[in-house]
Amino acid sequence: MRTVTIVAMSDTHNHHEEVPLPDGDVLVHCGDSTLKGRRGELASFLAWFARTPFAHRVLIGGNHDWALEAGEVPIPPGVTYLNGQTAEVAGLRFFGAPWRARPPWVKRDDQGNIRQGRYSAFGVMLDEIEAHWARVPAGTDVVVTHVPPVGLMDLGPVDPDGVQRRRGCPALLDRLRQVRPKLHLFGHNHHEVGLRVVEGTTHVNAALLNDEYRLVRPPVVLEVQA
User: Fold this and answer.
1) Each residue of 1-47: pLDDT tens digit?
2) Domain harbouring 21, CATH code
3) Domain span at residue 203?
4) Which of 25, 65, 131, 179 has the most CB within a 10 Å radius?
5) How many domains does the chain have?
6) What letter does residue 13 receive in the DSSP assignment?
7) What's 71-106 look like in SS3?
């Protein structure tokens, strides 16, 4: 066995050039590299990501990343892009997926089309999300998602109506409890971040921006046995 140093970050929203990068073996970005999902934003991020000084780089998308979902910019060499797939990286088995359940009021029309929201890239219908997360294989070491599991660092800011809502996914939590990876990395929620260990899995919300979309946090450094 050897120790692999993972540097995790999420939700950089075009602030990637400002991120202070510590040393490590694997750099992981958990989605929302862009703000408006435009091709130029994604191209800028990918060029930066590919030249970061890491032996391995793992990337998934987020709900802002329309150009990534559409495949408008080629993934450069040296970047492992996961969209519901597994890959062995630095001796660890990674699974990465950008999925986010659409709100229950989103319906298909008579032709089966979905009205897209402004920031709903990689959206999945609510009645389909459980089947998506069931694809996380047993034996996975590191799961990378964009959204949190429900109840784990998923509290958003207080709404104008005085309610603080959770942004996590119950189906994701259920699958993680079954698979029990060593590490689960995510972002999406800028408000409640940090690290928690639950049932042997280390969960990390690695969002770097705050609710005002200012870069206020450094990447998270973690050591995993491979």
Assistant:
1) 899 999 999 999 999 999 999 999 999 999 999 999 999 999 999 99
2) 3.60.21.10
3) 3-225
4) 65
5) 1
6) T
7) CCCCCCCCCEECCCEEEEECCEEEEEECCEECCCCC
